[in-house]
Structures are given as C-alpha cells and as structure tokens.
C-alpha cells in the first residue's frame, strides 16, 4: 500500500524504468540544464521535492523527473512513454492538496517548471497566452504591469503554476466576483497521452463551433493529457481595493452579513471569506513571524474586499455599510477594522491566506474541501467535533493525549465552500477511519460536493460517487479510455 493513500496495487501493465529509457530521455532533453533528474534511489534528495506532496501526506517512488521546455518536447516525451507503457504524472508547482501531483509508485514526473514563457498579451481585451509552467504570481505581476489582473488568486500563488491551476480548476479567493476558470479560460494547448498536440488555444470570447473540448481538460487533474499553454481572459486591475476584517458572533450573523454585503456593496464586492476562532489561533500560534496582525477575539471572522474605480466613493460606501451593520438592532458585526493602506490590506489578506499553512504546520492535517448550501456550511465543523469526541479521539478529559488536536473551519463563504481541517498528531488509520467516509456521507446527506475546488487526486477516487451519479461516472471512464487508452496519464487518480 502506498504511503498516504487508499489501497491500490501497481498496475502491472506499466513498464519498469530501464537505463535504456533514461538514455533515450537524456538524448531528447539532456543537453538542457536540469531537464533530466534521475537517481537509482527514489529517496535521493534531488527527487524528494517531486515525490512528496505539499502536506507531506503522500509520497511516491519515482526515479525520474523530466522538465521539457517546449510543447514539441512534451509531445516527444509522451509519445515515447505511450509506446513504452511508461506511466506519467504531470506536475506543476506541487501545491495540490489531494495527492494528485505526486507519483503513487514509480511513475515518471513530467514537470512543467521550464515551460514558462508568456507567448502573447492583448492589451485591449486583457487576454494573455501563457505556458503552463508560469507561476501564478508572476503571471499576475505581468498582466498587472499592463493594467490587468489574474481573475484567480490563492494562497499558493507564489508556487503554483497556471497549468496546475487549470488542471485542478482551482477556485480561490475571488470566484465570487470573477467566476471559475471554466469561464475565464478561453483556450488551451494540450498534449494527449500518445503525444498528439491538440491546439485549442483560441483567444476568442465566443466560439460555438460544436463541443467545447477545452472544458474537459479544466479540472481533469492530469488524467487526460498535459496542458502546455493557457489562454486566459484577465479583467482590468481597478484602482481602488478596500479590505476589512470583522468580528462576528455567530455563523447566522456571518450569513446575514453576507446577504447585507451583496445588497449594499454588491456591485464592488470582490471577496467574502470567513474563518473561525481556531483558525485565527492557529495562524497566531503556528506562524507567529508571518507578520499577520493580532486580531480581536471572536467566534468568527469575515474578510470582505471591494474592488472599484473610485477609492473615496468605495471607502465611504464600505464604511457606511459597516456602520449600518453595527447599528442594527442586533448588530451583525461586533468589531472590525478597514485597512488604512495597501500594506495593511495585504496583512489582512495574509491572515486569511496563512490558515491553510498554519493548520499544516500544527500537525498531520486532514483537509476536506466541501461545497454545500451556505446555511448548513458550519454545521459540518460542529458535527465533526461531536463525532470525533464521541469516538474518543478529540476533546477528552486528557487533551494532551488526544489523537486529534484541532478541528477548524474556514473558507469561501460566498461560494458555499468550507475547508474543514482536522489536525491530528499523525496520519493514522484510526483517525482516517473515524473521519472517512463519515465526512463524505455527511456531505452527501446535505446535497454537497466532496470536492469543491481541490479536486479528487489520489485522496478521493472512491468517494466521487458520493457527488456524481453512476451514468456521469461511466461517461468519465469512457472519456478517459478514449483519450488515454493505456491509462498512462496520472494513474490511480480521479477515477478508480
Ligand atoms: P500541482 O499541485 O503540481 O498539480 C495539481 C494537479 O494538476 C495534479 O493532479 C497534476 O497532475 C495536475 N497538473 C499540474 N499541472 C498540469 C498540467 N500542466 N497539465 C495537466 N495536469 C497538470 N486551491 C483552490 O482551488 N483554491 C484555493 O484557495 C487554494 N489555496 C491553496 C493554498 C495553499 C497554501 C495551497 C498549498 C494550496 C491551495 N490550493 C487551492 C490547492 C490548489 O489545487 C493548488 O494550489 C493549485 O491550483 C495547483 O497548482 P500546481 O501548479 O501546484 O499543481
Ligand atoms: C484555502 O482556501 C485553500 O485557503 C486551502 O483552498 C484550504 O488547506 C485547505 O484546506
Ligand atoms: Zn480554498
């Protein structure tokens, strides 16, 4: 059984890597610096960053990492792997949270790290064409210098690649305003398992010439091919951004505040994020040097952001909204602060963005990424606490010995997306079996999705049926078989 995942056996139809294979790849890519990393020992330090995932829950045994720098090279690599039955894991920034980006056994890692050119930018429409390996933050800086912004933003922006974002259909912090990548991605260039290059790299807002095939690859998590380039519609970077953090007493009030925000500042609202007291405490205790401000104590926190074209008007509007929220007969907000400048705004955002890493730093972090109707969103956290307490794993008379140390909830309230993080002392079968499938059954009962934005990866193939009907799953298998008949693309992931 592979480390961190569900029980699965190595697919015997895949070839084992031989010196001849390595020699072939060296001929193909080896004249370029760092394009082939090979070691006889998969625990070799040079391979470790590619074999281990971000949360250190999953670990593969690959001996070979390839870094092609052109689409033609990706095509040659895959054509050869296809002919030789060698399994491949596409890898971007390796920030994925469901074990999808690292090998399960000895699959070859195909890293997009050197596919990092920006091919084109249209400064009228804001459409940028970038190769898959461009780091999200670099892409945002690039379009930012030209008066635009990436519609996508997330805590891992300094490491994740735009190709990885598209492959996971990452959501992030501004879906509420700019929608999902299914809307912002206008085109893709993709290399299929047999090396075929499919050019869907259009830069058109409208194109109804039959099936919209690129949509299949958005969120396909490397299981259908390698995305080599992305055409992305970027919105104008507006001159005024206002950010406030607010203390809220109950989850009901968080929802009331959300309804009021949409009603009163809806046209400039760009983010509505929430977290609970435990999340705040984790950030303050686990990442004390991260520079995030110490906040007022509260059961819940809301970060609200507006983006608009007139700083004075937007600020006044937000202040008036908050005053009204505090003056209500039952105030929606107990306390709060609006950032005075961009440095403070950044610090407010860092508090929110650091929660994921703070929870990961605190111990063995089980991450659940659920979407469901907003009114029941936080019930999952309360129910998880009660459930794990009842199992004797959490909140016992001897908390120093509890296998589960923290249970916390936060997320993208505006999208109905909760991140439930269960921080244990270690990843153990006892804790895993106490939470799974309980958490997925709970989600199914509440008409939710077992993956809101992180994907399925190696963590959830057996739970896809909790959110998709049998016919949908059959069609997914059919698509996989058609595009990757030998199943060499990211095996053991997404589908089981
Ligand atoms: P990787 O982790 O390398 O890969 C992810 C998956 O995509 C794998 O299955 C891989 O095989 C596949 N893949 C990667 N590149 C390609 C390619 N070019 N072609 C085909 N397949 C490919 N996610 C959200 O949705 N919202 C968030 O707010 C968010 N915040 C995060 C915050 C932190 C601190 C961290 C660590 C992660 C966060 N994530 C979030 C998870 C998110 O999935 C990733 O950060 C990001 O989208 C993955 O990009 P990556 O380049 O790191 O991909
Ligand atoms: C976020 O919104 C990310 O911070 C990560 O999606 C969530 O770590 C997590 O569970
Ligand atoms: Zn998220």
From TrEMBL:
Molecular-function annotations in GO: (R)-2-hydroxyglutarate dehydrogenase activity; D-lactate dehydrogenase (cytochrome) activity; FAD binding; metal ion binding
Keywords: FAD, Flavoprotein, Metal-binding, Mitochondrion, Oxidoreductase, Transit peptide, Zinc
Residue stretches making up the FAD-binding PCMH-type domain: 58-237
Any single GO CC term annotated in Swiss-Prot or TrEMBL for this entry: mitochondrion
Cofactors: FAD
Primary localisation category: mitochondrion
A matching Pfam family: FAD_binding_4
InterPro entries: FAD-bd_oxidored_4_C, FAD-bd_PCMH, FAD-bd_PCMH-like_sf, FAD-bd_PCMH_sub1, FAD-bd_PCMH_sub2, FAD-linked_Oxase-like_C, FAD-oxidored/transferase_4, Oxid_FAD_bind_N
EC number(s) recorded for this UniProt protein: 1.1.99.39
Localization of this protein: Mitochondrion
GO BP: malate metabolic process
Superkingdom, taxonomy of origin: Eukaryota
Keyword Transit peptide in record: yes
Reactions that this protein is recorded to catalyse: (R)-malate + A = oxaloacetate + AH2; (R)-lactate + 2 Fe(III)-[cytochrome c] = 2 Fe(II)-[cytochrome c] + pyruvate + 2 H(+)
Function summary: Catalyzes the oxidation of D-2-hydroxyglutarate (D-2-HG) to alpha-ketoglutarate. Also catalyzes the oxidation of other D-2-hydroxyacids, such as D-malate (D-MAL) and D-lactate (D-LAC). Exhibits high activities towards D-2-HG and D-MAL but a very weak activity towards D-LAC.
UniProt similarity note: Belongs to the FAD-binding oxidoreductase/transferase type 4 family.
Name used for this protein in its record: D-2-hydroxyglutarate dehydrogenase, mitochondrial
Organism: Caulochytrium protostelioides
């Amino acid at each position: 059984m592979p480390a961190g995942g569900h029980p699965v056996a190595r697919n015997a139809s895949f070839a084992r890597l031989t010196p001849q294979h390595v020699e072939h790849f060296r001929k193909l890519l080896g004249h370029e610096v760092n394009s082939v990393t090979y070691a006889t020992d998969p625990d070799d330090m040079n391979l470790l960053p590619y074999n281990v995932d971000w949360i250190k829950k999953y670990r593969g045994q690959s001996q070979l990492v390839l870094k092609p720098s052109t689409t033609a090279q990706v095509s040659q690599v895959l054509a050869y792997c296809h002919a030789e039955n060698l399994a491949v894991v596409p890898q971007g920034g390796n920030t994925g949270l469901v074990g999808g980006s690292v090998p399960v056994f000895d699959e070859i890692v195909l890293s997009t790290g050197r596919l990092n050119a920006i091919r084109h930018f249209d400064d009228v429409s804001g459409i940028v064409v970038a190769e898959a390996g461009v780091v999200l933050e670099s892409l945002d800086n690039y379009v930012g210098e030209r008066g635009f912004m990436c519609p996508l933003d997330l805590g891992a922006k300094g490491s994740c690649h735009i190709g990885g974002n598209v492959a996971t259909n990452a959501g992030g912090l501004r879906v509420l305003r700019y929608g999902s990548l299914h809307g912002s991605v206008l085109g893709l260039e993709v290399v299929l398992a047999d090396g075929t290059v499919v050019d869907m790299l259009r830069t058109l807002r409208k194109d109804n010439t039959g099936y919209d095939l690129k949509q299949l690859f958005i969120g396909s998590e490397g299981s259908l091919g390698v995305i080599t380039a992305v055409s992305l519609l970027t919105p104008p970077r507006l001159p005024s951004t206002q950010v406030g953090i607010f203390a809220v007493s109950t989850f009901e009030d968080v929802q009331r505040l959300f309804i009021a925000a949409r009603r009163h500042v809806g046209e400039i609202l760009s983010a509505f994020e929430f977290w609970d007291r435990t999340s705040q405490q984790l950030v303050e205790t686990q990442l004390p040097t991260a520079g995030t401000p110490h906040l007022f104590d509260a059961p819940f926190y809301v970060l609200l952001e507006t983006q608009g074209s007139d700083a004075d008007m937007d600020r006044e509007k937000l202040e008036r909204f908050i005053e009204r929220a505090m003056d209500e007969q039952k105030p929606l907000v107990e306390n709060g602060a609006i950032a005075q400048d961009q440095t403070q705004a950044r610090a407010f955002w860092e508090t929110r963005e650091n929660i994921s890493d703070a929870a990961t730093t605190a111990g063995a972090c089980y991450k659940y990424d659920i979407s469901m109707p907003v009114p029941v969103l936080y019930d999952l956290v309360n129910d998880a606490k009660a459930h794990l307490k009842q199992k004797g794993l959490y909140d016992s008379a001897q908390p120093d010995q509890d296998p589960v140390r923290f249970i916390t909830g936060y997320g993208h309230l505006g999208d109905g997306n909760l991140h439930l993080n269960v921080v244990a002392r270690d990843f153990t079968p006892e804790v895993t079996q106490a939470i799974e499938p309980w958490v997925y059954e709970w989600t199914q009962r509440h008409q939710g999705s077992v993956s809101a934005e992180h994907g399925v990866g190696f963590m959830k193939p057996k739970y896809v049926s909790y959110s998709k009907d049998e016919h949908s799953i059959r069609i997914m298998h059919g698509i996989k078989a058609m595009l990757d008949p030998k199943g060499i693309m990211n095996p053991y992931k997404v589908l089981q």
